[in-house]
Amino acid sequence: MRASTIRGPTAVMHCETSLNSSPLESHGLDVSSAIAFDDIKANDKVLIRTRNSEYRFSVIDPVNHKGMLTGGPLGEEPREAFLIESIGKGENGALRDFRGLQTGARALFYLSSGPKVERVTTSKISGLTLVKAEDRSSLIS
């Protein structure tokens, strides 16, 4: 399955948020089911909501899926992370991966931790919001 390209106006000045929503956050582009890697550009931000947590992934290098991850058990200290894929069960119950993020699946990240690499897997994604960089910068001008 491949998500279609996401287009449309969004207006978010700042999306580093907590679990409590503020009026600014509701202006992001809520995605009903998926965000493909091809739809994520440099300086975009992705909000990933699960049942008990919210993660924020600020994209630095979209080609290598590299960015800064905060939220969930990581807390508010940004960590360098690589978004690998999302993993979920397909229609037949078999495990499937999706090259991007998908609701109902779990996001898989690898984090740099000195000489070690940590693996972070979220619980099932209940919601996704893509905040495009060009839409945030248009608010400043």
Account of the 3D structure:
This protein has 141 residues and is mostly beta strands. The chain has 1 helix and 11 strands. Strands 1, 3, 4, 5, 6, 7, 9, 10 and 11 form a 9-stranded antiparallel β-sheet that branches. It has a two-stranded antiparallel sheet with strand order 2-8. Strand 3 and strand 4 form a beta hairpin.
Write the SSE topology.
Elements: E1 29-31, E2 34-36, E3 45-50, E4 54-61, E5 66-71, E6 79-89, E7 95-98, E8 100-102, E9 106-113, E10 116-121, E11 125-131, H1 133-140
Antiparallel strand pairs: 1-11, 2-8, 3-4, 3-11, 4-5, 5-6, 6-7, 6-9, 9-10
Percentage of β-strand residues: over 45%
Using the CA coordinates, give the radius of gyration.
14 Å
Class from secondary-structure proportions: mainly beta
- Distance between the amino and carboxyl termini: 38 Å
Principal-axes shape call: globular
Give the number of DSSP strands: 11
Helix share bin: under 10%
Helical stretch tally: 1
Determine the mean pLDDT: 77
Question: What's the story with the biggest beta sheet?
Answer: 9 strands, antiparallel
What is the succession of H and E elements? Answer: EEEEEEEEEEEH
- Low-pLDDT runs: 1-27
